[in-house]
Design brief:
Order of helices and strands: HHHHHEHHHEHHE
Number of strands: 3
Structural class: mainly alpha
Low-confidence stretches: none
Distance between the termini: 59 Å
Mean pLDDT: 86
Radius of gyration: 19 Å
Helix content: 40-55%
Largest sheet: 3 strands, parallel
Strand content: 5-15%
Oligomer: single chain
Strand order of the largest sheet: 1-2-3
Number of domains: 1
Length: 238
């Protein structure tokens, strides 16, 4: 009897894809994945994002929709690394761009233009859970401000955001928007491009909203989308 062959004899799975991606935990890992595959769909999505940042009146708020396992979280990780302010992660992500030397060069130039030839965006990264979206956004802003260079401005901002979380001030969506504005100003002072707000598993907040119709208001999604589309000098990508 001939030796039986296993599927694993012919097909291997890259270790990085043996578990689901967690955006908040994975995007800033020092060992950036070199095995992420830039598909035509990824290239088109990236081009739309860059066009939104470089064109006059371009769209800067997007929703990524797809079935489980289609690569939404992996794309979000790639986007945060590519557009973020960490030069090492950004350069490694640049190297993954697909195509000929000419198309790669064009894509890199488009990305640098979207980043306004600056260091990059401050990522506000959230993996949602069954809690009010305003609370999760404020937690994400706090984590992001901790990544900025510390000085009197950032220290005071961190203290005030923590106080707002402790006292549930996030229940007023205006508080979250005001802290976004303050973070945007600090980003400008530190010479970064702008803010990149990325929410993964956003449906969890919708599930929560069905249970808590007063505290789970999701109108802030629209408020931030409108806010992002109005910001050009220090852009906000949502």
């Amino acid at each position: 009897m001939a030796d039986l062959k296993l599927i694993s004899d012919y097909i291997g799975i890259v270790p990085g894809f043996l578990r689901s991606t967690n955006l908040a935990n994975d995007w800033k890992q020092a060992a950036a994945k070199s095995d992420y595959i830039i598909t035509p769909n990824v290239s088109r999505s990236l081009e739309r994002v860059c066009n939104g940042l470089t064109m006059k009146d371009g769209q800067q708020a997007f929703t990524l929709i797809g079935p489980y396992g289609s690569g939404k979280s992996a794309f979000a990780v790639f986007l945060c690394r590519l557009m973020g302010m960490d030069p090492i992660l950004s350069e490694k992500s640049m190297d993954l761009l697909a195509g000929t030397a000419t198309t790669k060069s064009r894509a890199k130039n488009q990305i640098r233009a979207a980043k306004k030839e600056k260091q990059g965006f401050l990522p506000i990264v959230i993996t949602a859970r069954r809690r009010p979206i305003s609370q999760l956004l404020l937690e994400g802003i706090l984590d992001a401000v901790h990544m900025l260079e510390h000085g009197p401005g950032t220290s005071q901002l961190i203290s005030r955001i923590q106080q707002a979380l402790d006292r549930n001030y996030w229940e007023d969506s205006g508080t979250v928007l005001n802290f976004l504005l303050e973070t945007q100003k600090e980003v400008r002072v530190q010479g970064l491009t702008g803010l990149l707000i990325c929410i993964d598993e956003a449906g969890k907040t919708l599930e929560y909203a069905l249970q808590d119709k007063s505290g789970g208001d999701v109108y802030i999604f629209q408020q931030i989308a409108e806010f992002a589309n109005r910001q050009k000098g220090v852009p906000v990508l949502f």
